[in-house]
Design goal:
The chain has 341 residues and is α/β, with parallel strands linked by helices. The chain has 14 helices and twelve strands. The termini are far apart.
């Protein structure tokens, strides 16, 4: 097929003529409208393929006020995102679902609070149809700024107090997954069970702490240490726990990367896993599990599925009348038993 120029580019009228339908019907099919019988949809799509028709997105955006783009905002430094496979897996799900819906991904970083103004101005400038924001922190003003920009938005994770009204979200059953992890350790006969938690300003970490407390009523505060969802913070927390409570025989760790650090420290201290200390993580990140020794027992959440579902919820939000917000979604977890517990 020769290269298309403005002069020879197939028009919507040509598509309609080839398919034997009206221009209005061809337009509804090309632009994803409803109300067209399937045989006609098939004819229009076949004509599009035969002619090599490419919709004029600039003209279409003037009519529909849509830009075919979604901002994905990650409230973490770039270095953290590229070093944690959790983000890569979630972005994979988001990207695949956006592609399936003919939407482009615009990735925005929040290195620190100074980036809030830049992102708020970008969103308010009308460059995207919607936004997905995740890895938010409790004191983060970003959700409220997004709300003020009036850009339809879905949050990845249960929002904190700053989220503002009516922002739907997709999250994992963090509390239920934590309960299952700790109950498993109890079922193994472990009696001094510690918890290496995530950052206290993120709802996922707080929900996993709550699940720990649901099973172990009023545990010794010395058995709880906070990390930052990184391998090194998990190693540091494990070392502090062993120094203060050398009799620990079980550890629930709030994510797999921190569990990897905890396993390393236990090995360095000459403690056997799971014979001396049983370890359970959270996430079931394939890359991390492959690196763990022994193989990590962990709570699985469908991270790629979280990304896909965030896009599906946003698409639903974009198609609804203003003010009608779809219900938030909590995805289930399940315990994957391996050698560490």
């Amino acid at each position: 097929m020769p290269e298309q120029t403005a002069a020879n580019r197939p028009t919507l009228e040509a598509v309609a003529a080839r398919a034997g339908v009206s221009r209005a019907t061809a337009s509804r099919v090309v632009n994803g409208g409803a109300g067209v019988r399937q045989p006609l949809v098939d004819k229009v799509r076949a004509a599009v393929d035969e002619l090599g028709y490419v919709p004029n997105h600039a003209a279409r955006s003037l009519v529909t006020r849509r830009h075919g783009a979604v901002a994905v905002i990650i409230a973490e430094p770039e270095l953290r995102v590229f070093s944690d496979p959790f983000f890569a897996q979630q972005l994979r799900g988001i990207s695949r679902e956006l592609t399936a819906n003919d939407l482009q991904l615009v990735l925005l970083w929040v290195e620190d609070e100074s980036d809030h103004g830049r992102i708020a101005r970008y969103l308010a400038g009308g460059h995207v149809d919607g936004a997905i924001a995740f890895s938010l922190h409790g004191d983060d003003r970003l959700p409220r700024l997004i709300t003020e920009s009036k850009v339809p938005t879905v949050l990845g994770g249960r929002p904190g107090t700053e989220a503002g009204p009516a922002l739907p979200y997709v999250d994992t059953d963090n509390r239920g997954g934590a309960r299952e992890a700790v109950r498993h350790l109890v079922s193994l006969g472990r009696r001094t069970i510690a918890h290496i938690a995530g950052p206290g300003d993120q709802t996922s970490a707080l929900d996993r702490i709550a699940g720990y407390h649901d099973v172990l009523i009023d545990p010794d505060p010395e058995l709880l240490r906070e990390g930052s969802f990184t391998e090194e913070s998990g190693a540091r927390a494990m070392a502090e726990l062993l120094d203060r409570r050398p009799g620990i025989d079980g550890v629930f760790v709030a994510n797999d990367l921190m569990a990897l650090g905890a396993l390393r420290v236990l090995r360095e201290r000459g403690l056997r896993v799971p014979q001396d200390v049983a370890v359970v993580g959270f996430d079931d990140m394939e890359a991390v599990v492959r690196a763990s020794d022994p193989a990590l027992t962990t709570v699985r959440q469908d991270v790629e599925g979280l990304g896909r579902l965030s896009v599906k919820l946003l698409v639903k939000l974009l198609s609804r009348p203003a003010g009608r917000v779809p219900a938030s979604v909590i995805m289930p977890t399940n315990l994957v038993r391996r050698a560490s517990a």
